[in-house]
Amino acid sequence: MITLDTMREPSLEGKKYDIRVRPFQASDLSTVREMFLASMVNQSDSPFAKAMKGQLTAPLSWASYAAFVVGLIVRRWCSKRIGVSLSLLGSIIFAVHRTVLYIGLRRRVERNLKADLADIAGHYGMKEVADRNTGAVRYTPSGKSGFWIAEVGSEGKEPEAIGCVGLDANTNADPTSAELRRMSVVSSYRRKGVALLLVRALMEHSRENGIKTVFFSTSSFQEGAMKMYQRYGWKYQGKEDVSFWSQKIYWHNFSIQVDDFSL
Ligand SMILES: CC(C)(COP(=O)(O)OP(=O)(O)OC[C@H]1O[C@@H](n2cnc3c(N)ncnc32)[C@H](O)[C@@H]1OP(=O)(O)O)[C@@H](O)C(=O)NCCC(=O)NCCS
């Protein structure tokens, strides 16, 4: 357990918190899904928000703005009919472009919510184990995969989940490598080392379960994540172009040898 007493968030300033990492439990499911939606869709720095903002300055959008403006000029000085048609065409291209991007991104998010995030315990191999003393049943990782929660406790309050990470050994055929997935920390607790605690738990589990390489991919919209993984020793393995409707998007791939992780 780690005590954080230097908080950068003004509302948290001066308070003491105990942060610990524990295995995912059934009651965490909706919180993890909310964290995923917040960090991927709802926050202003989420990939979803950045992609929608990026669309405003995509080449196709500039073409639609140009068609709209040229249409206004043509309407004023040459032909009303051609001018109106051109402006209308510009507006339609822009609206279709934005709508298709929005629907495409929403579908990707929904696919994620219906995949591993629909049944985290099942997908990440969390098995129920009864406590010898109390008889209480709790999830614990039963194989190479696993899912962990960072929680914060403060005096007189129930612990609150503030971050999560999964290790998925099912996305590749090599039994000695596994993928880090679903890393997320709630925004008011970022830049305080919570992700490091999660990565440590994941690395410890990897070591104990014969995993030698951990890899992950993140999108070009997640610069913070890329900086963090490089800071924690991950090696850049190149990028894949997954651009979508004139919206440039790359997947950046990283990996680390478990034995090289020493933080
Ligand atoms: C990426 C994320 C998990 C980092 O969590 P975190 O708890 O804030 O990370 P840490 O506090 O352990 O970060 C440690 C270091 O990483 C780097 N880092 C982390 N976030 C950064 C950011 N937004 N910009 C620049 N560097 C960053 C810094 O070097 C930081 O150290 P410092 O605060 O002393 O400068 C969090 O920002 C997040 O949830 N982002 C949205 C979801 C996401 O992108 N997930 C990754 C998908 S693979």
TrEMBL record:
Alphabetical UniProt keywords: Membrane, Transferase, Transmembrane, Transmembrane helix
Highest rank taxon of the organism: Eukaryota
Keyword Repeat: no
Annotated GO MF terms: N-acetyltransferase activity
Domain N-acetyltransferase: 108-257
Record-annotated membrane-spanning stretches: 56-74, 86-105
Protein name: N-acetyltransferase domain-containing protein
Species per Swiss-Prot/TrEMBL record: Agrocybe pediades
